[in-house]
Amino acid sequence: MMTIKIHELSRDEYDLWDGLVENSPQGTIFHSIHWLTTTSRSLKLQFKLIGAFIGDQLVGGCCFYELKHFRLLKHAMTNVQLTPYSGFVISRSDRTSIRANEVWHNEILSALSNYICTLNYIHINIVNNPFLIDIRPLIWNGWRTSVHYTYLLPLDTDMEALASRNIRRSVKKAQTERIEVQKLYDQELMWNLQVKTYEKQNQEVPYAKKHLFDLMDMVHQNGMGEMWVATTPDNTAVSAEYILWDKQGAYRWVAAADPDKLWTGSTPFLLYEIFRDLQSFGITKIFMMAANTPHLSTFASNFNPILMPYYGVTNKSNSFMMMMRNNK
Questions:
Q1: CA 55-60-62 angle, 5° bins
Q2: Residues in a beta bridge with 230
Q3: Which residues form a coiled coil (predicted)?
Q4: How would you label 134-173 residue by residue, b for 16+ Cβ within 10 Å and e otherwise?
Q5: In angstroms, rounded to a whole number, what is the distance separating the alpha carbons of residues 59 and 51?
Q6: Residue 315 CA to chain centroid, in angstroms?
Q7: Domain spans of the chain?
Q8: 5-148+310-326: what fold?
Q9: DSSP labels for 166-218?
Q10: Does 322 have pLDDT greater than 50?
Q11: How far is it, in rounded angstroms, from Cα 130 to Cα 89?
Q12: Class of domain 156-283
């Protein structure tokens, strides 16, 4: 059995964390210090980094945000605005056998789980990324699970073969309407299209304008993504996408369209052009991030992507369970 020591990482260990994220098969942009610090500052939530060490080597960890109720009750979570998942990461093992790799994974994850459960959170809700496939150590330690879905679109193939007849028809329609596509960083344009998108559904945008802008700025300044816009011949913006990327691939992070201009085919055409551009830079896959909402899932499935599950885990303290029973 490995000797694993756990402690909360300090600011001077942030470089160690980013190194783990880069090395880990589960590491994503949403685990990065840039993302965590920007989200923490914007939403006024403190983030925590829990690290697992073998000797002086950081071999695993978990990141989450902390919400305090009445100064005493603490809630830990990853599901904050504009962050689809983060959670647990484990470093790549140099072991050669399947069994040895499984032991490595299980012991690190179990040690992290045990430590986090001692931190006196009344409720812990962690949504992990799709590459954390084996969550059995968490289940064995009493965590409850939930299943979420994303679409993964391979880009290392011919786009014509991927796109359905509906998508090809929409692309031709957009070309007929002389829709143009360009890379354009314009925060207000994205927000205005977001407002139009949600107003059509009698809803408000489900995240704060400032938070969206803070993350967009951070991504733009660090070269971690790009914004794309589709416009009509009179230069009216009708659709916009913000694409992120990391070592895992690209992400369809934020998207919006003028609901009165959907007939132009601008959104399928915009995505089609984005995918071709990503291909030219050697990016081999994109997470379309749309599989948990029925109408978004219906649209995304027109590109014939692969459906992938990812897992959420929750843990509730005895005091929280008692409080819930008393409130019934």
A1: 135
A2: 181, 239
A3: none
A4: ebebbeebebeeeebebbbbebeeebeebbeeebeebbeb
A5: 8
A6: 21
A7: 5-148+310-326, 156-283
A8: Aminopeptidase (3.40.630)
A9: HHHHHHHHHHHTT-EEEE---HHHHHHHHHHHHHTTT---SS-HHHHHHHHHH
A10: no
A11: 11
A12: alpha beta
Nearest to 143, CA basis, from 120, 115, 113: 113
Q: Calculate the average pLDDT of the chain.
A: 93
Q: Do domains 5-148+310-326 and 156-283 have the same CATH topology?
A: yes
Of the pLDDT bands very low, low, confident and very high (cuts 50, 70, 90), residue 98 is confident
Q: So what's the pLDDT on residue 327?
A: 52
| Three-state DSSP class for residue 37 | helix
CA distance to 50, 64, 118, 136, 313, per residue, from 103 (Å): 20, 25, 23, 12, 21
Least confident of 77-81, 97-101, 156-160, 241-245: 156-160
Q: Hunting for tokens 């995304």 — which residue is that?
A: 300
Whole-angstrom distance, CA of residue 174 vs CA of residue 18:
42
In contact, 63 and 31? CB cutoff 8 Å = yes
Contacts of 87 (CB under 8 A, 6+ apart): 62, 63, 64, 78, 126, 127, 128, 129, 132, 313
pLDDT tens for residues 171-182? 999 999 999 999
pLDDT per residue as tens digits for the range 244-263: 999 999 999 999 999 999 99
Q: Strands (DSSP E) along the chain, which ranges?
A: 5-8, 46-54, 57-69, 73-77, 87-90, 121-127, 144-154, 180-183, 225-231, 237-246, 249-257, 285-287, 306-316
Burial class (CB in 10 A: 0-12, 13-18, 19+), 224: middle
By three-state DSSP, how is residue 57 classified?
strand
Show the tokens assigned to 304.
């014939």
User: Is 44 exposed, middle or buried (CB count within 10 Å of its CB: 0-12, 13-18, 19+)?
Assistant: exposed
Tokens read off for 20: 């783990």
C-alpha distances (whole Å) from 316 to each of 35, 50, 110, 140, 291 are 26, 18, 17, 15, 27
